[in-house]
Predict the structure.
Amino acid sequence: MRPLLLPGALRRRSRPLTLALALGALLGTSLAVLPAQAGTASRSQAAASSASSSGASSGASSSSAASGSSSAVVRVSEFLADCPFSHRLPDDPIIFPGLPGASHMHSFFGSTTTNAHTTLASLQSSPSNCNPRVDLSSYWVPTLYNGDTPVEPTGTTFYYLGEGVRDDVIARIQPLPLGLRIVAGNARATGPNDNTIARWSCLHAGHVGASKNFVNCPAGTMLESYLDFPQCWNGRDLDSADHKSHMSYPVGGTCPASHPVPVPKLRQVLRYPVNGDPARFRLASGPGYTMHGDFFNAWPVAEMERRVRNCIRPIIKCGADGNPS
């Protein structure tokens, strides 16, 4: 809209008022921005979760929004480990311990020696391909096939998060206990709504949307799988008969009384170098909705405690080294 033209004298007299109004508007804008920047961790972490599902690293959107400068602390409760593909075996030391070949084919990440006979002691004495190297844990998933050709992910990040519970619960999160074993997802799912947890999406093609089954990713993009493990522990057992009952997902932003100990939530994000017609894809366990993940915790106790103390509880985004990123 064209500004109103005033006579010279009137323009001069109105200048102090104009400056006052401008200053007021500027202060009002600054004050309006502060609540958004000082919002709770839950809102920041929700943005991080959305970024992950659309193919961005967890917390990437929050990083650009919350970071006023390169030295600013990003208020996302997170540390991570990048653990590339190591090897394939039809073994599962959690479901079928001591029984080589008893399982469908699995792709292993982290510990480079995981097999049917793996124990906590063997993980602690074996090499890892993770960044950081101190993470001696083992992670595994059913192998993805394109037709009859196995496809391994080229992006493999395991995020440890505080999100999913209230800020006061984050403040009392405990380290994941050494030797903890968890299975997330449903390898025996008979349909997409059969207690399945994993989601599929397309890296750099968020418009496709997430699905419980494989999705058709455009050329030039990658198929992405992400899976959240439960973050409430019963405080007693490192495993259970079904490898799930000792853990629980939060309810209403807190841990249920049956599983009162909040621990970091493990988020498994895998990016596969395939796209196009999903009818060509299958998992060793079946359709896309049978995606599941296994985790055998072998983080050194002191390192896990440091990351929980310095990153998770104070709601600070940390890198693989466990320092603010």
